[in-house]
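Handout, section 4.2: multi-component inputs.
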Amino acid sequence: MPRKKVIFVACGSGVASSETAAYKLRNKLKERNLHNLAEVKVVNFRQLKSIAKQCDILVHIAPNDPTDYGVPRVNGVPFLTGFGLDPVMDEIEKLLKAE
Amino acid sequence: MKESKTDLKEELKVFLNPELIIVGLKAKNKEEVVRKLADLYLERGYVKDTYADAVLTREKSFPTGLPTLDVHVAIPHTDIIHCIKPGLAVAILDEPVEFFEMATLDKYVYPEIIFLLSIIKPEDQVIWLQRLVTRFQTEGFLKKLRNVPDAQACYELLQEELAKEDL
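Output:
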């Protein structure tokens, strides 16, 4: 079994959008039976620069952030709108199952 | 869930308050909507006087408009240091106002319903936000909400929907 990966969900304040997206993400991971592969943590963008390397996948909810955090990024907005959620989950599933 | 159902019901009573709802608000722009709702919070001791400015500043770098099903919404909010009590203030607008779409600074959305959040402990309030967001994705919910006749009807609809178990 692949090792447990860390997913950071980040937004401006780490208060509402990212908490809500993370909640939804955890449910979706359970639905796909992927919850044993991942640990989901909420962070805010101020922390992100210094801690990004501690995660394997970054779910971001912030505009045009040009920073290269050195980890794969996916768009977190579909967790709040429901639109385009399946492709995002497919991408996360692929990243979680990758070596 | 660590809390019992009764606790959750009590919590929902604090979070939702008909006095924090404006139906048929005429506003020129998002600043006006946010300030009107923030005044309701401030008068009732939900937030500090720094709250409205903090929300609007945050909105500039981290927009909160969502291109939801049928009716666009926005969920402006800010850091917990500006908040005193958790709350969900709601404005149903006469005419949509312009917001940037979340995670962009170049795409517009035109929300007709604004949910201004006062969050003090994200891990406690996330249950309501999660349920609210799940309803955004439910056919017909936002249309129904936009068409409520008054604040009391809006409150009752939200209370009924948020009291439901997660889908």
